């Protein structure tokens, strides 16, 4: 039995307004190939909720996505690949911080921090994974180089050599966004490789909306991606 099947049971038509005022959950992304088969997905595992004493998602309690790919050893099953956390940074100009970890063997134990990027909540910005830069935009501390055991694509392509991996530009809150994903060719050997990065980019884009202050009314409470 696929342990992730329960996350696909909802219709994706929206959530009740009262629930939306308290938390944002149940959002999901599915990427399909030309045959219609799902080749990558992402779904919220930790709801985006306002932190105590404020109306926004804070760093102390970030929302989180799990990015998954098909499990080659089990048909119709999914295998965890990465975890994306997001929260709102308050200031003169608010930003959304997106932190991505690559999961080692599908587990959070031994995961590898690949990127931590600040994106303007109003204007949007670029989500980037580039192991050569090795600089966290937020904390200004080095990103540890992935070890050879960290199989980034899951299909024999490791990132131990470093360098540019991917980038995706997203729009700010309240703006329609269809992220354009750029990939390093060495990390793409098949459709599934490209699809997993597309799912990650869509999760980053949706995180801009998910981190919007809860007292504001959003006309787009829920967006269902199916690419």
Could you explain how this protein is built, in words?
- The protein has 227 residues and is mostly beta strands.
- The protein has one domain (5-9, 18-213).
- The chain has helices at 17-22, 191-210; strands spanning 28-32, 38-46, 63-70, 78-89, 95-104, 107-120, 125-130, 164-170, 180-183, 225-226.
- The strands form two sheets. A seven-stranded mixed sheet has the order 6-5-4-3-2-1-10, with helices on one face.
- Strand 5 and strand 6 form a beta hairpin.
- Mean pLDDT is 76; it is low at 1-19, 135-160 and 217-225.
The coarse silhouette is globular
Order of strands, main sheet, comes to: 6-5-4-3-2-1-10
Give the total of domains: 1
- Residue-averaged pLDDT: 76
- Provide the low-confidence segments as ranges: 1-19, 135-160, 217-225
Major beta sheet summary:
7 strands, mixed
Percent in strands: 25-35%
Radius of gyration computed on alpha carbons = 17 Å
Could you estimate the helical fraction of the residues in percent? Answer: 10-25%
Task: Report the total helices.
Answer: 2
Cα separation of the termini: 25 Å
- Helix-strand pattern: HEEEEEEEEEHE
Structural class: mainly beta
Number of strands: 10
Helices and strands, with pairings:
Blueprint: H1 17-22, E1 28-32, E2 38-46, E3 63-70, E4 78-89, E5 95-104, E6 107-120, E7 125-130, E8 164-170, E9 180-183, H2 191-210, E10 225-226
Parallel strand pairs: 1-10
Antiparallel strand pairs: 1-2, 2-3, 3-4, 4-5, 5-6, 7-8, 8-9
């Amino acid at each position: 039995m696929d342990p992730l099947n329960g996350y696909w049971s909802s219709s994706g038509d929206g959530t009740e307004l009262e629930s939306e005022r308290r938390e944002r959950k149940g959002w999901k992304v599915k990427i399909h190939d030309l045959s219609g088969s799902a080749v990558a997905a992402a779904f919220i595992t930790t709801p985006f909720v306002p932190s105590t004493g404020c109306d926004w998602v804070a760093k102390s309690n970030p929302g989180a996505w799990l990015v998954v790919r098909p499990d080659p050893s089990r048909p119709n099953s999914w295998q965890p690949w990465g975890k994306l956390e997001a929260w709102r940074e308050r200031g003169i100009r608010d930003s959304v911080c997106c932190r991505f970890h690559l999961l080692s063997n599908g587990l959070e134990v031994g995961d590898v921090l690949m990127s931590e990027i600040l994106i303007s909540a109003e204007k949007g910005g670029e989500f980037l994974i580039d192991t050569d830069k090795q600089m966290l935009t937020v904390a200004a501390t080095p990103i540890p180089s992935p070890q050879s055991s960290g199989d980034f694509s899951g299909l024999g392509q490791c990132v131990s050599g470093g360098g540019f991996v991917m980038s995706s530009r997203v729009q700010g809150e309240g703006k329609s966004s269809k992220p354009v994903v750029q990939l390093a060719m060495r990390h793409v050997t098949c459709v599934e490789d490209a699809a997993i990065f597309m799912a990650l980019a869509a999760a980053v884009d949706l995180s801009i909306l998910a981190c919007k202050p809860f007292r504001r009314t959003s006309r787009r409470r829920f967006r269902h991606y199916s690419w």
